[in-house]
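Bit of a strange request maybe. I'm writing a small parser for structure token strings and I need a real example to test against, not something I typed by hand. Could someone generate the tokens for this chain?
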Amino acid sequence: MGQAGCKGLYQSLLDYKTEKYVIAKNKKVGLLYRLLQVSILTYLVVWVFLVKKCYQDTDTSLQSSIITKVKGVTFTNTSELGERLWDVVDYVVPPQGENVFFVVTNLVVTPNQRQDTCAESERIPDALCHEDSDCPPGKPVVAGNGVRSGRCLRAGSAQKGTCEIFAWCPVETKSRPVKPLLGEAEDFTVYIKNFIRFPKFNFSKTNVLDTRDKTFLKSCKFGPKNPYCPIFRLGSVVSWTGSNFREMAVQGGVIGIQIEWDCDLDRPPSECNPRYYFNRLDNRFSENSISSGYNFRFAKYYRDAAGVEFRTLFKAYGIRFDVMVNGKAGKFSIIPTIINVGSGVALMGVGSFFCDLVLIYFIKKSNFYRDKKYEEVRSGHQENGKVTVEPLQL
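Reply from user aminoacidic:
Good idea to test on real output. This should exercise your parser:
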């Protein structure tokens, strides 16, 4: 590159280049351009800023703690248990209260079980036998209650029987119940206390009304007009999911209680309120399905006067409550505001690009507008005393 070329390059670095604009007197394209501008501006103002609040910095790393406490008593009188009063210690698992708790609504009771030999239940397929060789000693029954002793027990002259097992005898034989034992549990109440914190903004709150009235929690009930009373009636919670408590209490089920915090910290803290959603999570649409309901087993152990251990086996049906918390908080920040305004300005350029395509390709006088938009200039050089002109497309 010669000295002249270097000088020209150096001078060009200090040049300022600007675009050339062509004003097209076309009302249809002009109207289209204004409609695109209004649409983009409406999207930016209404959706981006008012609805999505993209001018805010957000925090979704919610820190949460749940405390639950169930209250209520009921009375039953059954052949297995006799007269019995049930309080929170008897029917709530675990008793200390967490974000997941279980309320017993029905029971199958097998009293006075002792470790002995007895016949396995006929409902266990692996326990069925025809002769003693079908019951190898020491081998446990698959999905059964004990270990085979080596004998096949048959009733009378029956050809088929069940294996004798060493287990807690007698084994559980009752099938699913048909009505709830603790049907009155729908009037029990649960206290759900939720603490939350958004660490980015150092903002904390709870779902309990900040009051000095000590009788508030003893008299209030949760409702649409009282969102800061964390006392929920169990029957109401189940009904809010679209289910019937009495029907659900027979075989149990799973209820999800979702607490959602959506906090705009540009507003007063009093406007950051919890929202509750209630859903049934188990297979509610297939009542006869093997996957419907919820149950588990537990036992209470005793010793008789001779020091021999025995127990009462409980198969507990009930409702499991899962309390889930999520949320986000937002607060004004200049950085996301600038980013989203810049994005909106860039979208304006998309409108110009689209109208240019329409103008120079899709209308009748597109050739005329194309010639006005793209200008042809010619560069020349002298050769043998003559000037040769060559077209140059810009």
